[in-house]
Each structure stands twice: as structure tokens, then as C-alpha cells.
Design brief:
The chain contains six helices and no strands. By secondary structure, the chain is an all-alpha fold. The radius of gyration is 45 Å and the shape is elongated.
């Protein structure tokens, strides 16, 4: 009987170990399957992300190229408009200059073109450019083929940013002068008022 109990206990232990071993092997298989699924899921996500990044990159590249092309077209169009506007303005000024110069005096001699005085240049310029000419007049020289007025107008065409900067400075000075004048007037008026 004792032998049967020991034998029975061993068989029970063997069965328990077999069940544990079977469960462990099943769990190992499930673990490997889970690991494989995780790897496949991560790889799938990585591939989808790579494809999405590539798609975004190509979309962004296409948008960047499109923006550059559209911007370049707009810039070239504006430059062309500016050139045309300057050309027509120059034609108008030269026709006005030639008609007014013909009325005023006889044909200009070669030496007279180079020696055109500051006052003559100021008379030939539009009023808004006179202040700019006053700032740069020492650098403007005439030539046998070009008067100082023409040389200044050519310079003005080539340097619009400097003209705007000089005009801005003049405008700021004028605004400051007007503000000071206004403040002086306001101070005079406030002194003359009765406080009650």
C-alpha cells in the first residue's frame, strides 16, 4: 500500500510536470507568435511611415517648386511692368524735355551738355526728384552724349531704392518739423488760455 501511494505520488508529479511543460511550451509558442506579430506590426508601421514621409516629401517638393515657379512668374511679370513703366515714363520725359528745350533755346553744344548747371538740372527734373538730386549732385557728371539731367535720370532708374530711402528721410524730417511746429502752436495756445 505504501508502495502504491509513493507510486501514485510520482505519477501525479509526472502528470503535473507534463502539464506544466505542455503549458510552458504552449506559452513559448504564443510568446514567439506575439513577438513575430509585434515585429511585423512595427515593420508595417515603419513601411507605412516611410511611404507617408516619401509622399509628404514629394508633395512638399512639388509645392515648393510650384511656389518658386509661381513666384518667379509673378516677379518677372512685375519686373517687366516696371521696365515698361520706366520706358514709357522716359519716353514722355524725353518728349517733354525735347519740346520744352526746343522752345527755350537753340540746340545744345557738346560742351554745354557736360557743363549743365545744378539750377538747369533742377528745372528739368520733376519736383519730387529735386531733393534727391540735391543730395547726389556732386556725383552726377555729364558727358558729350548725355546732359547732367539725363545722367541723373539714368542714375535714378538704376537706383530706385536709394531714391526711396532719401525721400523717406526727407519725409521724416518734414514730419518731425511739422510735429514740432504743432507742439509749439499748442503750447502757445495753452499759455493764452484761462485755466478756469
Amino acid at each position: 500500500m505504501a508502495f502504491d501511494k509513493r507510486q501514485l505520488a510520482r505519477e501525479i508529479e509526472r502528470d503535473r510536470r507534463a502539464q506544466v511543460s505542455s503549458r510552458l511550451s504552449n506559452l513559448r509558442l504564443l510568446l514567439k507568435a506575439a513577438q513575430r506579430e509585434r515585429r511585423e506590426a512595427i515593420e508595417g508601421i515603419r513601411l507605412r511611415c516611410r511611404a507617408a514621409r516619401l509622399k509628404l516629401r514629394t508633395n512638399c517638393e512639388a509645392q515648393r517648386h510650384r511656389a518658386r515657379a509661381d513666384g518667379e512668374i509673378a516677379i518677372q511679370s512685375r519686373k517687366r511692368e516696371i521696365r515698361e513703366e520706366r520706358y514709357f515714363d522716359q519716353l514722355q520725359r524725353s518728349s517733354l524735355r525735347s519740346s520744352s528745350a526746343a522752345k527755350r533755346r537753340a540746340p545744345v553744344v557738346r560742351g554745354e551738355r557736360e557743363a549743365e548747371s545744378d539750377d538747369e538740372v533742377r528745372r528739368n527734373l520733376p519736383p519730387e526728384l529735386v531733393a534727391v538730386f540735391n543730395r547726389v549732385r556732386r556725383t552726377i557728371k555729364g558727358s558729350p552724349r548725355k546732359s547732367r539731367s539725363e545722367a541723373f535720370l539714368d542714375w535714378a532708374e538704376e537706383n530706385p531704392e536709394e531714391i526711396y530711402a532719401l525721400q523717406d528721410r526727407n519725409a521724416e524730417r518734414e514730419v518731425k518739423r511739422l510735429v514740432k511746429e504743432y507742439e509749439r502752436e499748442a503750447a502757445k495756445q495753452s499759455r493764452g488760455r484761462v485755466p478756469f
